[in-house]
């Protein structure tokens, strides 16, 4: 398993220094999230990815562009729009999903799958992985990247603040009807409706209070820094090929480095 770190940006940014720092700290990868300005196309995803690969093949291999689908048609590549071969070959495509249909599509046409932070070990085992296998019976070499929620801290105050923020993050995701299935699997379908109702009333802080300890500990690893790595491996060691810690409250770089070192000692960081 590889361990990555993330950098949340609200606008395009030069992340070269951050990437170099992450590499120096021992991380295998750096993820940049963009959630406010230019969201990725989400509809008709299977055909979108196939069309994208056809365009890349035209640029990299000189293959004549001739993609004709139900939703997208690309049959002309002018020199003006052709950047030529990519020295680093075509980018790998990873798709995220929660529902079974998108998950199966990701396995079918993408190079890897991004597990949503709003998931549980049980959901991954009983819903996500079976859906991936339906889309790709042999998952050997297929990348499954996860971002497990983590609440940790060195003091009681830090831990209390971390748990509060993680509860609020769980509540935010849980209010989304499309993610109801994760809660329903655990018998918490009613919580989904309650959170959705509170969100429409703008009662964001009250939503976090609706997340009890059972829900918190099911969705998140809640532990002192020196116990986080072991619990991550117990839950996800055989499910994910790489992971990025999801810490809504932020995390002390020294704690993050400690967790990464703990994982490396267990020989899971490539």
What is the strand content?
5-15%
Beginning-to-end CA distance, first to last residue? 6 Å
Secondary structure tally: strands: 10
Shape: globular
The low-pLDDT segments are: 38-42
**Main beta sheet: strand number and arrangement?**
6 strands, parallel
Which structural class matches the secondary elements? alpha/beta
**SS summary, helix count:** 11
Overall residue-averaged pLDDT value:
90
Helix residue percentage: 40-55%
Strands of the biggest beta sheet: in what spatial order? 2-1-10-7-6-5
Supply Rg.
Answer: 20 Å
Order of helices and strands: EHEHEEEHEHEEHHHHHEHEH
Description:
Helix 2 (45-61) runs parallel beside helix 3, helix 3 crosses helix 4 (121-135) and helix 10 (225-236) packs across helix 11 (253-265). The protein is of the alpha/beta class and 270 residues long. The strands form three sheets. It has a six-stranded parallel β-sheet. It has a two-stranded antiparallel sheet with strand order 3-4. It contains eleven helices and ten strands. It has helices at 16-24, 45-61, 100-109, 121-135, 156-174, 180-185, 189-200, 204-209, 213-219, 225-236, 253-265, and strands at residues 2-8, 30-33, 67-68, 73-74, 94-97, 112-115, 143-146, 149-151, 220-222, 242-244.
Structure summary:
The chain contains eleven helices and ten strands. By secondary structure, the chain is α/β, with parallel strands linked by helices.
């Amino acid at each position: 398993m590889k361990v990555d770190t993330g950098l949340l940006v609200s606008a395009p940014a030069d992340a070269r220094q951050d990437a170099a720092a992450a590499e120096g700290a021992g991380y295998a990868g750096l993820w940049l999230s963009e959630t406010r300005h230019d969201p990725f196309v989400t509809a008709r995803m299977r055909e979108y990815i196939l069309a994208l690969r056809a365009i890349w093949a035209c640029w990299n291999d000189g293959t004549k562009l001739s993609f004709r689908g139900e939703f997208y048609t690309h049959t002309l590549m002018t020199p003006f729009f052709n950047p030529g071969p990519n020295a680093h070959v075509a980018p790998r495509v990873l798709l995220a999903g929660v529902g079974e249909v998108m998950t199966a599509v990701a396995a079918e046409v993408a190079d890897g799958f991004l597990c949503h932070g709003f998931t549980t070990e049980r959901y991954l085992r009983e819903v996500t992985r079976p859906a991936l296998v339906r889309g790709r019976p042999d998952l050997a070499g297929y990348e499954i990247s996860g971002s497990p929620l983590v609440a940790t801290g060195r003091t009681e105050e830090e831990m209390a603040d971390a748990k509060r923020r993680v509860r609020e993050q769980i509540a935010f995701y849980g209010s989304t009807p499309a993610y109801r299935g994760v809660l329903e699997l655990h018998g918490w379908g009613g919580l989904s409706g309650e959170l959705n109702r509170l969100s429409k009333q703008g009662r964001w802080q009250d939503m976090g209070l609706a997340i009890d300890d059972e829900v918190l500990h099911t969705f998140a690893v809640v532990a002192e820094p020196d116990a986080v790595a072991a619990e991550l491996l117990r839950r996800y060691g055989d499910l994910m090929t790489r992971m990025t810690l999801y810490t809504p409250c932020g995390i002390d770089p020294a704690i993050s480095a400690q967790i990464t070192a703990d994982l490396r000692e267990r020989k899971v960081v490539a």
